[in-house]
């Protein structure tokens, strides 16, 4: 027989369960409030984005205003938004090392800058905008309710989850994204209830406002049986997706750094970048690389696409982000992944809707170091039948992308392999190259 617990210990356990109730109630209320704010902001943003995209398509001449628009947005940030210029990286830094509440002006600045970028034709996304709005709005509750550092961390993570979930209509992926994006190889489960509640609330509120999300479908006939060949082919595809994510992240940071060294004045960088992008868009067959590119993503699921489409979108997006245009990286990564998967289909002898769907999430998984959230996104968007293939693609992509990523403030919790495992705890991705250089010099001097 199992010995019974002493009465005193049993009483303590019961008391702990009762204490859990007000704790859960508190965080559900806070998370739902943060989710409602983020969902409402995302709905407004999606409406504005639709109008901006429709206007650009109806008036192609707007593209020639891209340099002036970039100059204007960068000038406004220079005058009023220097503190919030780091965007998503600022949110990650504040969660790891809380210092001060994020200014509320982050939300209108990033939304206005992103809508202007899409109106005039920059190749940027929307995730960064929604995440920044969600985080900034959630953080205002810190002042209102006088929350401590630990509570603020959880609330910021909930705001990130809410923004991601509401802009894509994927609450499960959004909940895990807020936990997973902070550090490679480490999750903070203390924030899981708040992130889940905020993500679900934000998604529902966004839909209640009437916002709609793009639907993608992988036909059942395009999902083959699980065999040794299909699994091996997915591993090969996952490696290609991871390398694409790594190239995107590395080249975006490299070009951005080069541009900053050559042109110190930020508005001038956007002006010059806008001129280059507008000129490149005049070349035949390049117009679909502007904006979100959702029609091309949808086409990748239903018909063969030109094999160079992923490279064209990558070039336009890297140029847009590196020169300072506001927006996100995720939807362009969806584009790159879907079209790359489509191009790999005949080589790997797999249906192109399947590889387009796996690439859609796997390139993002490698570039953002979020394989779990990306796999959940595949389940929410495409259905459970694609789960095994999506998981393989995302995990392999995550491994092959190495210790790099689109978020330079992301920490290394547990490295994937090699050098990352020996790096100091909580080292930023943006500091890894310098750490490796110093470590190499120290090793050489010891020898």
Automatic annotation (TrEMBL):
GO cellular component: a single term: membrane
UniProt KW Membrane keyword: yes
InterPro entries documented for this protein: Cl-channel_core, ClC, ClC-type_chloride_channel
Mode of membrane association: Multi-pass membrane protein
Localization (cell): Membrane
A GO molecular-function annotation: chloride transmembrane transporter activity
Name of the protein described by the UniProt record: Voltage-gated chloride channel protein
Organism, scientific name: Massilia forsythiae
């Amino acid at each position: 027989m199992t010995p019974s617990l002493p009465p005193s210990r049993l009483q303590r356990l019961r008391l702990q369960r009762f204490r859990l109730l007000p704790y859960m109630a508190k965080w559900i209320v806070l998370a739902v409030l943060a989710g409602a704010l983020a969902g409402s902001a995302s709905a407004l943003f999606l409406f504005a984005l639709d109008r901006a995209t429709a206007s650009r398509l109806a008036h192609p001449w707007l593209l020639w205003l891209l340099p002036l628009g970039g100059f204007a947005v960068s000038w406004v940030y220079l005058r009023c938004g220097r503190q919030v210029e780091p965007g998503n990286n600022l949110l990650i830094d504040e969660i790891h090392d809380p210092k001060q509440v994020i200014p509320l002006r982050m939300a209108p600045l990033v939304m206005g800058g992103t809508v202007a970028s899409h109106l005039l034709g920059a190749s940027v996304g929307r995730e960064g905008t929604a995440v920044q709005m969600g985080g900034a709005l959630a953080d205002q509750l810190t002042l209102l309710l006088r929350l401590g550092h630990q509570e603020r961390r959880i609330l910021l993570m909930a705001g990130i989850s809410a923004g991601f979930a509401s802009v894509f209509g994927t609450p499960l992926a959004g909940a895990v994204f807020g936990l997973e994006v902070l550090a490679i190889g480490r999750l903070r489960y203390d924030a899981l209830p708040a992130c889940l509640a905020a993500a679900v609330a934000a998604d529902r509120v966004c839909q209640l406002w009437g916002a709609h999300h793009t639907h993608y479908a992988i036909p059942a006939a395009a999902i083959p049986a699980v065999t040794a060949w299909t699994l091996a082919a997915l591993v090969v595809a996952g490696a290609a997706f991871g390398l694409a994510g790594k190239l995107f992240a590395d080249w975006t940071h490299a070009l951005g750094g080069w541009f900053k060294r050559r042109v110190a004045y930020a508005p001038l960088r956007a002006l010059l970048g806008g001129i280059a992008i507008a000129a490149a868009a005049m070349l035949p067959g390049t117009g679909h690389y502007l904006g979100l590119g959702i029609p091309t993503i949808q086409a990748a699921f239903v018909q063969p696409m030109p094999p160079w489409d992923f490279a064209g979108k990558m070039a336009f997006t890297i140029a847009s982000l590196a020169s300072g245009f506001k927006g996100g990286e995720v939807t362009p990564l969806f584009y790159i992944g879907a079209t790359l998967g489509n191009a790999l289909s005949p080589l790997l002898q797999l249906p192109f809707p399947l590889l387009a769907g796996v690439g859609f999430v796997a390139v993002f998984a490698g570039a953002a170091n979020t394989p779990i959230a990306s796999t959940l996104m595949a389940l929410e968007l495409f259905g459970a039948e694609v789960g095994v293939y999506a998981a393989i693609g995302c995990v392999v992509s995550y491994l092959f992308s190495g210790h790099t990523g689109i978020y330079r403030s992301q920490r290394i919790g547990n490295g994937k392999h090699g050098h990352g495992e020996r790096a100091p705890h909580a080292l930023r991705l943006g500091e890894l190259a310098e750490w490796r250089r110093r470590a190499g010099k120290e090793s050489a001097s010891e020898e």
